[in-house]
Amino acid sequence: METSIVKSQAYGKDRVRVVRVVRHADGWQEIADYSVRCLLSGAQFESSYTKGDNKLVVATDSQKNTVFYLAKTLPAEKVMVPEVFAAEIAKFMVNKYDHVTTCQVKIITKPWERMQLNNTQHPHSFYREGKETRWTEAVVTKINPPSKIGLKARIDSGFYDLEVLKTTNSAFTDFWRDELTTLPDMPDRLLSTKVLCQWKYVAGNLDALENVPFDAIYAGAKRNTLDAFANDPRAWVHASVQTTLYIMADRILNDFAQVDDIYYALPNIHYFPFDLSPFGLKNLQADAEVYMPIADPSGYITATVSRPSKGKI
Known about the structure:
- The protein is an alpha+beta fold.
- 22% of the residues lie in helices and 38% in strands.
- The chain contains 6 helices and 10 strands; from the N terminus they run E-E-H-H-H-H-E-E-E-E-E-E-H-H-E-E.
- The protein has helices at residues 46-50, 60-73, 76-79, 82-96, 214-230, 241-255, and strands spanning 11-23, 29-41, 102-109, 112-117, 120-128, 133-142, 151-166, 191-203, 261-273, 290-306.
- A hairpin with an 8-residue loop joins strand 6 (133-142) and strand 7.
């Protein structure tokens, strides 16, 4: 016979990733990206621990659904401020369930910073706060070993972990379909990726590298990456991650003759609209405002883009 008592208890759902997009009539869009923990407690839950009685247990999946439901139905100003949203979730839970004494909601904000291009804030494109990582690798080889006369140099440079997101102006339609295809056409979607970009310089000797504007090329590669992602006015550029990747690389090659070729890897970090139809709410396709980030699996798009005939600096 068990004699121990439950001194305290709480249960719920953790790491509920929810994204809310607010779309204004003038084209300006806002985004809030949260990780939510919701814990319920109350004396009547004790029997679920000590007697296997689940009659009063509000399933953690239901708690997750509530977070998405409120993200959709609450006024935007009550969702976009994490303190207000947390209080609204907790208030909803204790009011809805008589046997819930306390609801504890913790929200971790995963902030996005609005892109600023040409001294103008972009209406719907963002990048993750925090610095991407810049790297370089130099390889120097003797042309006629063991002689030290004549050295060939190669420098690879780039950056990674530049996380970007835009809430509109990205599509994926008219792709191959067969009996294994379930993905629908997406004429407009939320697109996010964590950019890896690298390029190489090739020189006949080390002296040729002395006048290469390495810092300017790094800054230009980042600028072109962000600008092509957010601003290119041609619709076909945003028809897929592949086309956006190609334009990013093409811009860098056109701006910097010293760059030999460009490699990009762009994982497609999925943000899918959360289906709220079981609760009588429209949140798919043109009605999408509340999204669930999906860590795995993700798309992974890569390419190396070069000039038709490569030159050396």
